[in-house]
From TrEMBL:
Residue ranges annotated for the HTH tetR-type domain, each copy included: 16-76
Keyword check for Secreted: no
MF (Gene Ontology): DNA-binding transcription factor activity; transcription cis-regulatory region binding
Name this polypeptide is given: TetR/AcrR family transcriptional regulator
PROSITE patterns: HTH_TETR_2 (PS50977)
DNA-binding region of this protein: 39-58
Native source organism of the sequence: Streptomyces piniterrae
A Pfam family matched in the record: TetR_C_6
Keyword terms: DNA-binding, Repressor, Transcription, Transcription regulation
C-alpha cells in the first residue's frame, strides 16, 4: 500500500530508450487490463526484462506511476504548446478558447481517458500513488495559473491559484461524463462546458 517514494537514478542517454519502453509497458497494462493487473512483475514481463532491471529505473510502483503521469503531462503540454504557438518549454500562451479546445480534444482519445481512470482508481487505494497524482495535478494547475498571470497580470496570486484549481476541477471532472463513463455525451453540454472553462481563463474586464 502506501510508503515513501524512492528517488530513481537520473536518466542517461543510453537508458532513455529503456526507460521509455518500461513506461510504454505500464501504460499498455493499465489501458488494456486495468489497474488490478498492474504489478511490477507484470510490467517487467511485458517489457521482457528482469524485475531487478525495472526496479533500477523505478524502485517502487508509485515511482513508476509518477513517471507515467509526468510523461502524460509533458505530452499534453507539448501538444498544447503546438496548438497555441507557444515556444517549447515556455509558459502556455494563446487565446483561452483555443487552449480549452486543445485540452478537451485530448478527452476524445479513449486510451488516454482509460489510462487516467485506472490511475485514479489506484490512487484511491494507495497513498504513495495518491501522492504522485497530487503532484501531477499541482504541476497541471501551476501551468494554468501561469497562463492566467500572462493574460491578466493584475490578478493576485490567490485568485490565480483559485481560478486555476477551479478550471482543472471542471475539465477533469468533465472527462468522466464526456467519456461516457458517468453519462451520455451531449453537444449542448459540451458547448456550455467550453464557454464556462474559457470564461475562467479570460481576463477580467
Amino acid at each position: 500500500m502506501g510508503g515513501r517514494r524512492t528517488a530513481a537514478p537520473p536518466p542517461t542517454p543510453k537508458g532513455s530508450d529503456r526507460r521509455r519502453a518500461l513506461l510504454d509497458a505500464a501504460e499498455r497494462i493499465l489501458i488494456a487490463d486495468g489497474h488490478t493487473q498492474l504489478s511490477m512483475r507484470a510490467v517487467a514481463a511485458a517489457a521482457d526484462v528482469r524485475l531487478g532491471h525495472l526496479q533500477y529505473y523505478f524502485p517502487a510502483r508509485a515511482d513508476l506511476i509518477g513517471a507515467v503521469l509526468n510523461r502524460a503531462l509533458e505530452r499534453s503540454l507539448h501538444r498544447l504548446a503546438e496548438l497555441t504557438g507557444s515556444p517549447e518549454g515556455a509558459p502556455l500562451d494563446g487565446e483561452p478558447a483555443q487552449l480549452v479546445r486543445g485540452i478537451l480534444a485530448e478527452q476524445d482519445e479513449p486510451e488516454l481517458t482509460r489510462l487516467f481512470a485506472e490511475i485514479w482508481a489506484l490512487a484511491a487505494r494507495d497513498d504513495a500513488i495518491a501522492d504522485a497524482v497530487r503532484a501531477f495535478y499541482r504541476d497541471y494547475t501551476a501551468q494554468v495559473a501561469a497562463f492566467l498571470r500572462r493574460h491578466d497580470p493584475g490578478l493576485s496570486d490567490r485568485v490565480c491559484q483559485a481560478r486555476a484549481e477551479t478550471f482543472v476541477m471542471l475539465v477533469e471532472g468533465a472527462a468522466l461524463f464526456r467519456s461516457g463513463i458517468a453519462s451520455e455525451r451531449s453537444d449542448d453540454t459540451d458547448a456550455e462546458l467550453m464557454r464556462m472553462a474559457a470564461r475562467l481563463l479570460a481576463p477580467e474586464v
